[in-house]
Design brief:
Radius of gyration: 18 Å
Distance between the termini: 45 Å
Shape: globular
Strand content: 5-15%
Strand order of the largest sheet: 1-2-5
Structural class: mainly alpha
Order of helices and strands: HEHEHEEEHHHHHHHHH
């Protein structure tokens, strides 16, 4: 396993973010708004990490429906949250611009989908909101892998999403690892023709962290992808050239040109 040790100042940050998340969720619920914590806030509330302060957190991500997004934004404003400058662009069509509470750690992003629209069918927001208030371990795994490999385009650009791989190892080795329905994980990625991305993630989780996850389907493609990722990791110039070439078809896609 991988040993980690949170610094005291980071422990305070995670505690602050957790407290903010609890207050926000309670405030949204009191307003009749269904909200589900995502990513870091979810794993803390679900108890994935033995020591919550070891989980790196930059912000809070909370899922609401598109119909409730406006009211949810007003609720956060009523709590004192103000617009926060980030790298948010129109391409991030699944989230609202970030807000932050002055004097408190991090920022908050309200999401109306779990990933950008190109991949949203992998885990429809309506299903997650219906199953709330917390995602199941299976849903959380699908979201983590899809966010790393598809949303952040690690698979396309041959990058190694270390945090997501490490977190999958943590979950799979913990008491909730048996809850993961791997058949449903695969069927979700099959719906968006992205099983190759799933297999790449499983391959690297096993090879880098010894994660107790199913082996990838097939051998050559995920192993070749892993070799490519490792080669590019040590050659920044080549990696930059590869990323520009690999991204060109996506850069010229209809949604991006629009």
């Amino acid at each position: 396993g991988v040993q980690t040790c949170a610094l005291p100042i980071y422990r305070l940050r995670v505690t602050d973010l957790s407290d903010q998340g609890r207050v926000i969720l309670e405030h949204l619920a009191s307003a009749g708004i269904v909200a589900v914590p995502l990513k870091g806030l979810h794993v803390l509330m679900a108890g994935w990490w033995p020591d919550p302060a070891d989980r790196v957190m930059r912000d809070l991500d909370i899922l609401v429906s598109k119909d409730d997004a406006g009211r949810a934004s007003q609720c956060l404003a009523g709590l004192g949250y103000l617009p926060f400058t980030t790298g948010h662009t129109a391409a991030a069509d699944h989230e609202l611009p970030a807000v932050a509470l002055p004097g408190r750690a991090g920022s908050v992003e309200l999401h109306t989908a779990l990933v950008v629209s190109r991949w949203s069918a992998v885990l429809p927001a309506a299903e997650i909101l219906d199953r709330g208030p917390l995602m199941t371990s299976t849903d959380a795994v699908i979201h983590s892998i899809a966010h790393a490999q598809l949303h952040d385009e690690a698979h396309l650009l041959a990058r190694i999403p270390l945090r997501a791989l490490h977190e999958l190892m943590i979950l799979a080795a913990g008491p909730r690892g048996q809850e993961i329905d791997w058949a449903r994980v695969r069927s979700s990625f099959r719906k968006v023709s992205a099983e190759a991305a799933l297999d790449a993630h499983l391959c690297q989780a096993r090879s880098l962290f010894g994660a107790s996850v199913p082996p990838p389907v097939g051998l050559f493609r995920p192993v070749a992808h892993d070799r490519l990722c490792r080669t590019l990791l040590g050659r920044p110039g080549l990696a930059s050239m590869y990323e520009r070439t690999a991204f060109l078809p996506r850069g010229l896609s209809t949604e991006r040109m629009h």
